[in-house]
Amino acid sequence: MNSILDELFMGRIDILENLPFRKQEPVPDEAAFIKTLTTEQQQLYEEIQDSFMERCALEYKDCFVTGFKMAIRIILESL
What we know:
Structural class: mainly alpha
Distance between the termini: 17 Å
């Protein structure tokens, strides 16, 4: 158990490789909106959506790492 904690704390385990990337559920009338866009605009819209989902995953990773480090400090101080 200690080895996985060490690996997580030192950043050797990539959390992102374990996160499932799900396609975002379509917003009502999103399909109608997308149909009004040109092909280039549709591609740009898809790229924006993908980068948004990627950024969210990175933010979740940062939150996890920060919380994990705080939890380790609390555990170490309580010993």
